[in-house]
Write a structure and sequence with these properties.
The complex is a heterodimer. By secondary structure, chain A is α+β, with helices and mostly antiparallel strands. Chain A has 3 domains: 158 residues, Aldehyde Oxidoreductase, domain 4, CATH 3.30.365; 177 residues, Aldehyde Oxidoreductase, domain 3 (Alpha-Beta Complex); 319 residues, Aldehyde Oxidoreductase, domain 4, CATH 3.30.365.10. Helices cover 24% and strands 25% of the residues of chain A. Chain A is built from 17 helices and 32 strands. Chain A has a 7-stranded mixed beta sheet, with helices on both faces. Chain A has a 6-stranded mixed beta sheet with strand order 10-18-17-16-11-32. In chain A, helix 10 packs antiparallel against helix 11 and helix 15 packs across helix 16. Chain A starts with a strand and ends in a 17-residue tail after the last helix. Chain B has a domain of 118 residues: Enolase-like, domain 1 (2-Layer Sandwich), CATH 3.30.390.50. Chain B is built from 12 helices and 13 strands. In chain B, strands 4-5-10-6-7 form a 5-stranded antiparallel beta sheet. In chain B, strands 1-3-2 form a 3-stranded parallel beta sheet, with helices on one face. In chain B, strand 6 and strand 7 form a beta hairpin. In chain B, helix 11 crosses helix 12. Chain B starts with a strand and ends with a helix. The chains are: A alpha+beta, B alpha+beta. Chains A and B meet through loops of A and strand 11 and helix 12 of B.
Chain lengths: 787, 289
């Protein structure tokens, strides 16, 4: 990673002190507390938890994507030796449904199942295999119904309603500028995105422990402890304080742990049997047990002047939400509001739908609606450039958004929006050398170790893309995070203890919290308490928000602690607090230098502060899709260089150059990790990652057939990290995690198009498509009138 | 589930005689996946992984006899000179961890049409040595596979070894997967030149219910090479002949549409792989001549 050499804008909040920076503070690549244990295989993941007296839970799931349940017979299952409980919807003590945005999903299905894999009954047994066999002995009679699997069919008024509210989860209409502007040149096409899986490695798992007096403690891998607790308390008919959740070791998340999986089920079994209950999905069950990225069909018309200025964008986007709402309404909002890309678009007419079908439920995944839109709008920019006979980067530069640009929702972009600079940097980055002549190393060729080509039919292509993403929660949501910071000197040395409920899901928020505490209090010894619900909410580890939000809360709490310590010191010294600061365990005076050791000053006192942090408020969208819906934006650009075996349709990504404004890199190594990991996921969506669903049934629920990139599929990444400072965030940070996954995909597709000359309007591209045997590009058509 | 862990080959055969329903475990990289996915719940497992008698190979009279328990890592490290096609194929199997664990006998016993070792063994003209407590016999490999996951093994029989003629000419193996490593073949093809016998051997994977030879293609290209005396002259193979060879290989396949690929793509890719592997092998033959 190279860090941008341009002078960064000064962070909006001045550093709290001068003096020697503390070890492991903000701006350093401080080591992760979980890093060494993970590398050595000693980290305890949620699936490793064990209790001597525990039972194992198993889930009975629907084999049909759409059916009425005629009867459920648990008699035989209960007779199995070793079975302690078999539960159905009748045993759900409280609210029978759950859901992140609307509680439309049954805890256990009672009358109707809406997707293949929907939970219907639960078993607890002494051994996991006993539980699985007993689950097979639950007899369920179904009246099988025709599944609705095409979102366009679901939108048709004549189609059966899958929910009482109808089949439209959300429709957003955006009307911006002139309704019917004239353009010299028009480009129209339809694009399709397949269903991507988050493909975390640690399956859904957790341990529920009854407390003996009606409450329960749950140890689980999740992304947002408090939203879990809210839903658990409602369905278990318990008060929130009777449901205590502690974060267990998380083996990846990427959005797939925002919705509940084993949470309510394991607690029901634990409360019924009065024994600890462990649940852990198998890999196949995991594919049915969490939401996926929405498949989408996106029709676009771009209009421009002959000189390449965008005149309008008209788009109709349809997102397949599957059987239940999950976070479809927010995904729909992101897709709609970001769907014109990081460009100046004076006129826009957008209709974006999220619909119910009988496909597996879709919800949060890294990029969250921005991914699908970016593939389409960046493909459109290339198509338009071709029609204008313009260089595709030049067309983007001519229309690039910048500070002050008004988005199609009427929101003015505050803060840096360096779209042109990011594009220029990736365009001008050094190109990799051409493929090696002579006897090539097959690992550097399309097909890799499969030995499919020795250079025959290999052509190189280059593609560019830019994208943007809202950071934090949007549309007026009360988005906050809580932190408690405690400063003491228990053994004659100052120690700062940080407690939040922020979920460390691998992204590094644990490290960031410690770094902030070290810097703000000038104390190297920082420890993090386990994330649990005994502290207030931190919000979700999603929307690239935790460094900003929980980081902001930790910083604010530290400032409160520091203020108290310095005012005590000022009192003792008869000085003004403003003349004092903390540095490396010392109270420093601007005039006198070190005046106190912090440990000495603290003695037995403990200084503690709890603070909530909120970003600037956002507002909902009105009927025309207008409103300041987003708290902030992050931008990135990618250039992909690929080698394609045009005869076999196999692709080797040779090189990725990226530029991204991260506001400020609190931990440069973690930033690099997020950028490279996101690009891997973006390459996966371009080339291989698809949950193949036919008639509502997943055909490849395994890592044998759901392929994710290996090290041989991942190219070297040249990352240009800009630190331009966001005016609205602590230290000027921006979220880092999502932008890398957004524009890397269209850059790779553009490069493959350049190598093959093919349209390639559906992702992931399959070898058949790339070789030109099939054209699964959806037919282009005019957007239908909004309904 | 019963688990038998015999200490010797003869004990293993005795166990198999007494418990013919027991499923051999010879690495477990397929079997354990089936168990974990709930696709198999065998009454009994017969663990062959500890048997020293299966873990080695030897050379005898122009042939290599490879114990059923030899791993892919060993095939790559020790047998590349004798069996280059098998070694290339072995390098495409899974990850290093899988190759350390998975065995040649296991690959045959699983009898998946996608088994990477099978096409090069077919092209090389291998035989399977199977044994029961009562007797031992050899089965030509092409008669060993009956259907997906079904072999010619009879009750009480286990795979003892695979016997393969040492390569007498260049060999190649090539496969298609949608990523560049650790991938199950969408389609695969092996080719072996047999200058001594003036023949070309082939093997097709993942394009029929069982691994196949493309015999018509073998006869055709053998005929071309003989007709123009190319074995002696070492002249290039005429382009129309290699194209026709590709077409005949593709025609020999009986592919299906599944999650890994389509019928059309499998046939197309087979033709390409057949042409390319023939060109690579022929180029090696000419430069060695």
């Amino acid at each position: 990673m190279s860090r941008a050499s341009t002078a960064p804008v000064a962070p909006p909040v001045a550093p709290p002190k001068e003096g020697v920076p503390v070890q492991g503070g903000v701006g350093t690549s401080a080591l992760r507390p979980d890093g060494v244990p993970k590398v050595k295989g000693e980290f305890a993941y949620s699936s490793d938890m064990w209790d001597e007296h525990m039972l194992w839970g198993a889930t009975v799931r629907s084999p049909h994507p759409h059916a009425c349940i005629v009867s459920i017979d648990i008699t035989d299952a209960l007779k199995h030796p070793g079975v302690h409980a078999v539960l159905t919807h009748e045993d759900v003590a409280g609210r029978k449904t759950f859901g992140l945005e609307r509680p439309d999903q049954p805890v256990l299905a009672s009358e109707r199942v809406r997707y293949r894999g929907e939970p219907i009954a639960l078993v607890a047994a002494a051994h996991p295999e006993t539980a699985r066999r007993a689950a097979e002995a639950v007899h369920i009679d179904y009246e099988v119904l025709q599944p609705v699997t095409d979102p366009e069919v679901a939108l048709d008024a004549a189609t059966v309603a899958l929910h009482p509210s109808g089949n439209v989860v959300r429709h957003i209409h955006i009307a911006h500028g002139e309704p019917d502007p004239e353009a010299d040149v028009v480009a129209e096409a339809t694009y399709e995105v397949g269903m991507q899986d988050q493909a975390f490695l640690g399956p859904e798992s957790g341990l529920a422990v009854p407390d003996g007096s009606g409450g329960v403690d749950l140890y689980v891998s999740t992304q947002w402890l408090h939203v879990d607790r809210e839903q658990l308390a409602a369905s278990l008919a318990l008060a929130p304080e009777e449901v205590r959740i502690t974060l267990a070791g998380v083996g990846g998340a990427f959005g797939a742990r925002e919705d509940l999986s084993i949470q309510i089920h394991s607690c029901m079994l634990a409360l019924t049997t009065n024994r600890p209950v462990k649940m852990m999905y198998s890999r196949e069950e995991s594919f049915y047990g969490h939401v996926h990225r929405h498949p989408a069909r996106l029709n676009y018309i771009h209009g421009a002047t002959t000189s390449g200025e965008l005149v309008f964008v008209k788009a109709r986007l349809v997102f397949d939400g599957g059987a239940y709402a999950s976070s479809s309404t927010a995904v729909c909002a992101n897709a709609a509001t970001l769907c014109c890309g990081p460009y100046e678009v004076p006129n826009a007419l957008i209709d974006c739908y999220a619909v119910y079908t009988n496909n597996p439920p879709c919800g949060a995944m890294r990029g969250f609606g921005a991914v699908q839109a970016c593939f389409a709008y960046e493909s459109q920019m290339d198509l338009l450039a071709a029609k204008l006979a313009m260089d595709p980067v030049e067309l983007r530069l001519r229309n690039a958004a910048s500070t002050g640009t008004v988005t199609p929702t009427g929101q003015k972009i505050e803060g840096p929006a360096p779209v042109a600079e990011l594009l220029t940097r990736v365009r001008d980055a050094p190109l990799p050398p051409p493929g090696s002549p002579g006897t090539p190393d097959i690992r550097e060729l399309p097909g890799g170790v499969s030995n499919a080509t020795h250079g025959e039919a290999v052509r190189r292509g280059i593609g560019h893309a830019a994208g943007y993403k809202n950071i934090c929660y949007s549309e007026g949501f009360d988005d906050y995070a809580t932190a408690r910071v405690r400063l003491s000197a228990p053994a004659g040395e100052p120690v700062v203890e940080v407690h939040t409920a922020a979920a460390e899901v691998g992204q590094g928020v644990a490290t960031i919290q410690l770094q902030i505490a070290r810097t703000e209090l000038g104390v190297e010894a920082a420890v993090l308490r386990p994330a649990d619900t005994s502290i207030g909410s931190s919000g979700s580890s999603s929307a690239s928000r935790q460094t900003w939000m929980t980081g902001g809360a930790v910083k604010t709490a530290c400032e409160a602690v520091r203020e108290r310590v310095l005012s005590t010191a000022a009192e003792v010294l008869g000085a003004e607090p403003g003349e004092l600061y903390l540095s490396n365990g010392l109270v420093m005076s601007l005039e006198l230098g070190a005046v106190y050791s912090l440990a000495e000053l603290l003695g037995d006192t403990v200084v503690e502060a709890t603070r909530e942090y909120r970003h600037a408020p956002t507002s909902p969208l009105d009927a025309n899709g207008q409103g300041n819906a987003h708290a902030g934006f992050a931008f990135a650009a990618h250039r992909a260089v690929v080698d394609v075996d045009v005869e076999l349709g196999l692709v080797k990504v040779v090189d990725i150059a990226t530029a991204q404004d991260v506001g400020m890199a609190l931990n440069p190594q973690a930033v690099e990790g997020q950028i490279e990991g996101g690009i891997a996921q973006g390459i996966g969506l371009a080339l291989m990652e698809e949950v193949q669903v036919i008639d509502g049934v997943i055909r490849n629920p395994s890592f044998t057939d759901y392929l994710i990139p290996t090290s041989l599929d991942m190219p070297p990444v040249h990352a240009d990290v800009l630190e331009l400072g966001d005016p609205g965030s602590p230290y000027g940070v921006k979220g880092v995690g999502e932008p890398p996954v957004i524009s890397s995909t269209p850059a790779v597709v553009a490069a493959v198009r350049a190598a093959t000359g093919r349209a390639l309007r559906r992702i992931p591209m399959r070898p058949d498509d790339v070789a030109g045997l099939t054209d699964r590009s959806p037919a282009g058509e005019a957007p239908r009138e909004p309904r | 589930m019963d688990i038998y862990r015999p200490a010797s080959w003869s004990e293993a055969l005795e166990v198999k005689r007494g418990a013919p329903e027991s499923v051999p475990l010879a690495g477990g990289t397929d079997l354990m996946v089936d168990l974990n996915f709930g696709r198999a719940r065998p009454q009994a497992l017969l663990d062959l992984t500890r048997l020293a008698e299966l873990a080695g190979w030897d050379r005898d009279n122009g042939r290599v006899r490879i114990g059923a328990g030899v791993t892919f890592t060993t095939l790559i490290a020790e047998l590349a000179p004798e069996l280059p096609g098998l070694a290339i194929a072995s390098r495409t199997v899974g990850s290093p961890q899988i190759r350390n664990r998975a065995t040649l006998g296991g690959n045959l016993g699983t009898a998946s049409p996608a088994g990477d070792a099978l096409p090069p063994l077919l092209a090389a003209g291998a035989e399977v040595e199977v044994a029961s407590a009562a007797r031992s016999r050899r089965i030509p490999l092409e008669d060993f596979f009956i259907a997906p996951k079904v072999t010619a093994l009879e009750g009480g029989e286990l795979i003892a070894a695979i016997v393969v003629p040492v390569a007498d000419g260049p060999q190649q193996y090539s496969k298609i997967g949608t990523r560049n490593a650790m991938v199950i073949a969408t389609v695969s093809f092996a080719l072996a030149l047999h200058p001594g016998r003036r023949r070309v051997g082939t093997g097709i994977g993942s394009a029929a219910p069982r691994p196949l030879r493309a015999t018509e293609a073998e006869d055709f290209i053998g005929g071309v090479l003989a007709e123009h005396d190319l074995w002696s002259s070492g002249a290039p193979i005429p382009e129309p002949a290699s194209a026709r060879f590709g077409e005949l290989v593709a025609a020999a396949a009986q592919p299906i549409d599944d999650v890994r690929g389509t019928v059309a793509y499998r046939r197309h890719a087979l033709a390409v792989l057949a042409r390319r592997t023939l060109a690579w092998a022929w180029s090696d033959y000419r430069s060695a001549a």
